[in-house]
Structures are given as C-alpha cells and as structure tokens.
Task: inverse folding
C-alpha cells in the first residue's frame, strides 16, 4: 500500500507511453522518490553519459506518503544526471504537482530519448499521450501553464514546465510547477529541454491507499500536533517564512556577501522578512501580500508578493504586476547579499523572472556575484557585458541580467554557464564559490563550520538541503552545537545526511524535521506501507541512498579530490562578526567523516560498507 505500484515510461524518441509495475523489492530497500528513482537511474544509465544526451534519463518521482493526509505530503523530485554539475541530481519540489501525479496512479514517470519536435506529456489517470508543444515552445513557464490549462479547458490541471532558459540550455535551468514552486537546482530543466519536452500536465482522480488507515490517521494527527506546537514550524515559518533567517544568519556572521568576500551584509535589514512586511514608500503597500502552503502542508512557509507598480515594471510587462511567489531566504540572499544589492523591489522582480523563465535564483545570483567581482577586477569589461556596469550593489545590473539570462541572450548567456564555467572562461576559476560545479547557498562555512563539510561532501554539489547543520549549530535543533568548532561535526553531518536521505525518499517536506525526528516519521510510514518501518530502518535507507549516489559520482569521474572548498573559505579569514579570524576547518573534519562513513582515505566506500548496507 501507499505506493501506487506503477511506473509510466515515456520514450520520447519513439513517442510512446507505457505502464509497468514498480519494482517492489527495490521499494523496500529505497522507499521512494529520491532513493528509489536514483536506483532506477543507476541501473538504467551509464554514469559517464553526457547530461544533455538522449541517453541520459530524467525521472519524476513521488514518495509513498505523497498524496496522503500526512502533513506536507505533496513533494516530488526530479532525478537525472545534472547539466550544471555532471553529478547525480535530485531536485525536490512542493506545490500540488506531486499530489496530482500520485493520484493519477504513478510512483514515477521515466523519460528517455529525445523527441524530434517539442512535445508535452498529458496524463489523465491511466491515459497518457505526447502532444505537439510547438505553440508553447519559446514561451515562459507562466504562459505555458496557463496555455495548457486553457487548451484542455481544465483549470485544475497541474503543470510542470520549463521556460525559455530550459530550452536554450541555461546550465541551472529548473522545472517550475504551480507557477512558482520549482525543482530548481542542478540544471534538471536543461536536461528536460534537451529532450524537447516542454511540459508535463496531470489530472489524477484515482487516490492513494494506505496499509492501515486507522493507524495512519492517528500517526499523522499526532505528527501535525507536534508541528503546530513547535516554535519553528508552528510560529516562525508560518509568520516569516524562511526569510526569518536573513537577520539571524547576518548577526551570526555567516551571511556570504559580495561573492564571499565578506560574511556580513550591511543591507540585510532592507531585504529581510521584516522589510517584506513593512509598507513601501512608493505605494504604501507591503511587499508581502499573503502566505501560501503546498498540498497538505500545515506549516505554510510560502510567500506571495508583488513589486511596487512602476518601480521595475512597464506597460509591456504586466505579468510582473501580478502577485506571485515571493522571496524565500535562499533567493533573497543570492539576489541580494551575494551581489550587494539591497533593493527589495529589484530582488522581487528578479525572483519573478526566475519563476517565469524557470531558472535557479541561487546559482544565478551567485554567478552574477562572481561576475561582478571579475568586472571590478578588470577581468570582464563593458565590451563583454554589452555595456552593463557589473558593479556590486547595482540593482539595474541584477535585473537586466535576470531578463537576459532567462532568454539566453547577450551576457546573460555567459551567466547561464554557471560560475564554474564562467570563471574558468575568464581565467579566474578560484572565484567560483561552488563545489562540484554547483554554487553555495546562503551560509558561509567560516561562521558555520559544519556547513563546510556539508558542502564539500554533498553528492549533488554545494547544497544545504543534504545536511542542514544550521539547524543544530544556529537554531539548536535537535540540540545546540557550537558553530565555530570542528569537533563532532563529522558525525553531525553524517547523521543529517542519512536522515535527509530517508525524508527525501518519503514524500514529505524536509522542513518538518525542525520539529520531527525519524521517530515521528517512522510511525506514519509504517502505517502507510507494508513491512515494518522503524527509525533505525529509515536511517539505513538514508545511508544506502547516500552511498548509492556516491558510487554513481565516482563512476562518473568524481574523486575524493572534489570533496573540497574554494581556497577563499580555507585560507581567507572572516573579517567581521563572531567568526572573525577563522577559516573553515575542512581538513580536520573530512578524514573523520570518511572514517565514520566506512570509506577509504580516498573517499571510496569500502567493500565491507557496501556489503553491510546491502548495496
């Protein structure tokens, strides 16, 4: 139960859609979503495949709890070999698309090959077909979603699509569903575009069954009560969203600023959650209009915002005058502190473009920050930028580049390469603040030591959602640890990584773990799924998933040498704040981490480890 036990396999080359049974033996070992889809990808593709080749596959996957009455059970993930990194990619999204896919009766949709012409997939329960998408090619995610709904005269269709950025191969293009929720990182949208797949539209009415309905209802009710009573999930996130972190991390001295040259941003208060709620000078209205929630979510951390009319809008762009997905912490940091821009309207405008054209604001903002540093150093000139003055703090440069990058035009096409390729092109590879080709999110690892090890060892490149040690080091969840020391961080990172692997495979949102431990999640999975599911078994699933991803990357050509950080974080000490004078102590943490993982000194899982976790 809970699993739909059904896969939709779409061969884009042949133009066929076929159902096949889910491998339940694998489901018992990998649970679902991130874990199970990774198993399918590993078994069916060559790790050395070109990410943009027809031989690469792209999998949309739900978890067993997706579509149930568990809180936040609306998640789905896109698993493929990432266009940005060349590493394993798993990008997670909320909204309502995942629920619709599960209610249509599918655990996964596996896309293979490449269509000769643009197409979109239309799914209505057990009926699936590929439809000509020529009329939508060259349009935004917003226009595509609205257009497909209008064409089929069904406003309740759930649509996941790529914008122009995915069509033209922006390396960090994502897949947007429900207008402003996204599988945003690692370039999964570029992979989708390379297959000439414009969108997936789903309407599902089959429903989801669980193993023991009475037991499941009791477990999910208890879980919701814990979320409601917790100060983070019951108060902080509903009231301020993830933007509650802007002031907290800045005061901690771990807010990467101007391409990590600094770790505190003097303009943080101007782009914070508090600023979003204040009346604006221009029209007296706040940036934040209301809050929002994904399917089944009792937390409601989403934001709905608007740009001040006239500030960054003209008559020809009415789409930017509507209310849409507002700034969340990572986007506000990347578009703001990383570039030195403290204009809240500019950040909101740029974020709208990221949603509209479907590209990752984290990688975009971080890449713009790297370009700004090279511009100020004279490595990039006005000739290359087309006259855009790429100075730190320039709201005009940020918004101009957002529009250009979204369409792959002008210097925006260069930004669309991502910071690793861009910095290498201009002879300054050391200025790319990335790991395995993926840009850092909003935490400086000189001020939060555990995040340095988290970034360095993340299988999909620099990522906070693979091991959020900020929870412990800053917020004190599940227990407080000192962010400025390296002792104990190897074990902390491993524990977070394994737990996250299980949560990402369940269909639940990771934000629940501010309040829930695996002891709270296990009863929900146990009641929903056949077999005995305990917290210990979930840890084993997470560890198995982590090692499977590691083995894929090793076979793709990555080595332990890629488990590192830019020299700036290892050699240039923090200038201000509590971490003043400190660098990241990765060299102290990494050997212990390898040992705890049961890996060799070169970072390769030992035969004993692989045998122990039945990999």
Result:
């Amino acid at each position: 139960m809970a699993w739909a036990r059904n896969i939709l396999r779409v061969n884009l080359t042949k133009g066929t859609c076929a159902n096949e049974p889910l491998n339940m033996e694998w489901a018992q070992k990998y649970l679902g979503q991130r874990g199970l889809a990774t198993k399918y990808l590993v078994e069916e593709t060559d790790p050395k495949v070109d990410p943009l080749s027809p031989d690469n596959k792209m999998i949309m996957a739900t978890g067993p709890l997706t579509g149930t009455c568990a809180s936040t059970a609306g998640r789905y993930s896109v698993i493929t070999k990432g266009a940005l990194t060349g590493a394993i990619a798993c990008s997670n999204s909320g909204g309502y698309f995942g629920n619709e896919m599960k209610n249509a009766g599918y655990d996964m949709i596996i896309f293979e090959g490449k269509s000769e012409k643009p197409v979109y997939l239309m799914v209505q329960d057990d009926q699936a077909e590929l439809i000509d998408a020529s009329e939508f090619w060259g349009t935004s995610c917003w226009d595509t979603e609205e257009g497909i709904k209008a064409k089929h005269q069904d406003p309740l269709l759930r649509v996941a699509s790529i914008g122009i950025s995915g069509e033209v191969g922006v390396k960090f293009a994502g897949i947007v569903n429900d207008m402003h929720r996204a599988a945003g990182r690692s370039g999964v949208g570029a992979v989708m575009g390379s297959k000439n797949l414009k969108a997936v539209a789903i309407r599902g009415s089959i429903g989801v069954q669980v193993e023991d309905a009475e037991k499941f209802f009791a477990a999910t009710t208890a879980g919701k009560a814990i979320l409601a009573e917790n100060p983070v999930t019951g108060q902080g996130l509903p009231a301020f969203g993830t933007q509650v972190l802007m002031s907290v991390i800045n005061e901690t001295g771990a807010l990467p600023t101007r391409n990590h040259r600094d770790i505190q941003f003097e303009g943080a208060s101007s782009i914070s959650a508090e600023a979003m709620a204040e009346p604006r000078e221009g029209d007296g209205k706040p940036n934040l209009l209301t809050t929002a929630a994904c399917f089944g979510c009792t937390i409601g951390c989403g934001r709905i915002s608007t740009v001040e009319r006239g500030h960054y809008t003209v008559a020809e762009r009415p789409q930017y005058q509507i209310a849409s997905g507002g700034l969340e912490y990572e986007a506000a940091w990347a578009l703001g502190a990383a570039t030195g821009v403290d204009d809240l309207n500019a950040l909101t405008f740029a974020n709208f473009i990221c949603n509209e054209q479907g590209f990752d604001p984290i990688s975009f903002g971080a890449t713009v920050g790297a370009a700004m540093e090279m511009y100020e150093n004279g490595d990039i000139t006005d000739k290359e930028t087309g006259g855009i003055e790429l100075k730190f703090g320039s709201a005009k440069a940020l918004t101009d580049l957002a529009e250009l990058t979204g369409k792959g035009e002008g210097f925006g096409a260069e930004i669309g390469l991502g910071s690793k390729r861009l910095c290498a092109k201009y002879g300054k590879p050391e200025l790319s603040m990335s790991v395995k080709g993926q840009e850092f999110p909003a935490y400086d690892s000189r001020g939060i030591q555990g995040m340095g090890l988290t970034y360095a060892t993340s299988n999909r490149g620099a990522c906070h959602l693979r091991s959020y040690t900020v929870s412990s080091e800053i917020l004190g969840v599940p227990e407080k640890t000192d962010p400025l020391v390296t002792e104990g961080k190897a074990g902390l990172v491993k524990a977070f990584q394994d737990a996250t692997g299980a949560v990402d495979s369940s269909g639940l949102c990771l934000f629940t773990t501010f309040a829930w431990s695996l002891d709270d999640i296990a009863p929900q999975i146990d009641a929903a799924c056949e077999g005995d599911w305990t917290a210990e078994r979930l840890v084993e699933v997470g560890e198995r998933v982590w090692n499977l991803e590691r083995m894929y990357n090793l076979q793709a050509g990555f080595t332990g040498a890629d488990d590192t950080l830019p020299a700036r974080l290892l050699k240039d000490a923090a200038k201000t704040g509590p971490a003043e004078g400190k660098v990241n102590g990765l060299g102290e943490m990494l050997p212990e981490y390898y040992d705890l993982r049961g890996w060799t000194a070169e970072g390769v899982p030992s035969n004993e480890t692989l045998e122990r976790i039945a990999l």
Q: What stands out?
A: The radius of gyration is 22 Å. The first strand starts at residue 6 and ends at 11. The mean pLDDT is 96.
